[in-house]
Write a structure and sequence with these properties.
heterodimer; A: 13 helices; globular; B: mainly alpha; MetI-like fold; 2 domains; 14 helices; about 0% strand; transport (chain B); MetI-like_sf (chain B); transmembrane (chain B); cell membrane (chain B)
Chain lengths: ~270, ~300
Amino acid sequence: MTALVRRVLAYAALTVMAALVLVPFAWMLSSSLKRDNEVFTVPIQWIPNELRWSNFVDIWERIPLLTYLGNSMFLSVTITVLQVLSGSFAAYGFSKVRFPGRDALFLAYIATIAVPWQAYMVPQYIMMQKADLTNTHLAIILLQAFGAFGVFLMRQYYMSIPDELCEAARIDGLSEYGIYRRIMLPLSKPALASLALLTFVNTWNDYMGPFIYLTDNDLWTVQLGLRSFIGQYDAEYAMMMTGATLSVLPILAVFLLGQRYFIQGIATSGLKG
Amino acid sequence: MAQVITRPAPAAPRARPRGRRAWRDILVGWSFILPNFAGFLLFTIIPMLTAFALAFLKWDSYSDPEWVGLDNFARMLGDENFHVALRNTLFYAAGHIPLTLAAALGLAIALNRKLRGVPFFRTAAFFPYITSLVAVAVVWNMLFNPTAGPINQVLEAIGVSQPPRWVASKDWAMPAVVITSVWRDMGYYMVLYLAGLQTIPKEYYEAARVDGANAWQRFWGITVPSLRPTTFFVAVMLTIQSFKVLDLIVVMTDGGPGRSTLVLAQLVYREGITEGRFGYSSAIALVLFLIVLTVTVVQFRINERRSAS
């Protein structure tokens, strides 16, 4: 009997907590289906009188959302692919090939994680300006695809794979590249998935990079497009929430598909990208 | 390597393959590292080192760089924007660090149980962290709407006659940003705390229960001390994150109203990229980095002393 009561209490507490955490999302979703003048009502109306699904149709005409989504997708996929490939490749060198200077070099990688990006964004900007790469997607790709984070996360995982496995493969005549491709890559699928998901989401959500570098409307990402929409039409509350909902949906999908890998990635590295 | 080279000639037959092997390892090792390292060197390490050098130069977009020693730092002392930004950053950190830590620990303890449905609740708590920042900022700005926003409606309903004007007021804009950032970040640190909680042996709690310790005593006597390494790590991460806060503020308040939410990283952005004062902005960036470094080192020291005692 007391066990049952305790259980009910536990669920009640958890539900209250989840409701508190999720209230902003509920507000977003509910407002996205309202008329502009229904968003701020006293008292709060959680379920709209009439569900205006048309908001989700109209927004595509109000702002070039398709272009924005396309740009976000292009940047996120390109950066993720480059980060996963170059990161896991380098991690193999740092964990399974012995050569002088290796560990000192890795220490340099680790040390840079402690330096906030904000401290060197200006020199990066000057470099890109001199190279005439501002206002291009290439600038964002170059700046974000070769981070230390991917190397760090993959190395953590490769260190847990026994060296004997590589040694055996070497004796069997596999080259180092063969070992990387045929043994390490298949074995490290969970870590690769973690890295890919974290990188994808970080790039998709990134605001400052595109904000600093991209001035042409054609190049904007969803985040920039949505922000500028809010700046221009600050009374179209419902439409803002429709845009916000659409910008979150892809992330929700990616997250629900691979949340196991997210959590593992964070728990093993304790860092974000 | 040195051994191989100094070895006399007769022993060469064995030495040569070893030398060749060593060279081969260097080449192979570097071939793995190079694709990432080239990009990393060019776009992270070089800008980082440049930032240090720039801090001692007078250089803006329309003049040539000139060595000025510590002038940029002297200028900071008299720059009111810098004082305001420093104060705001400290205020943000003082709110964000303890509140996020407490919320994350609370969530982790509540969700560290074997009940059906707990994975759903964990997902819910984590989701704000990966929601895009612009969506977070626009939704919370509306929640904080001073006249008809849900937050003030709730406050009025429970008897607060004149609720704060939040992002529209100089005094309450920063607390609004802090609340938003705590909501956004707590799920991330909850994951770290959950990992920490799972390492505490169940026997500790059983033994304490046998000894008659209540839940409160078990929390302070077992949970808190056992989580010390996690708490330390979380505190360091939160400190770094707090002092470099930028994007949330740019999107949510853009430093306003007035400059009531202007923070250091934003000043670096404004001076360096908007105004083109490369030298001065890099000096501010260096100060920002030194603050983060100092706080982190102090935290390490405290942690060492506690672990030793």
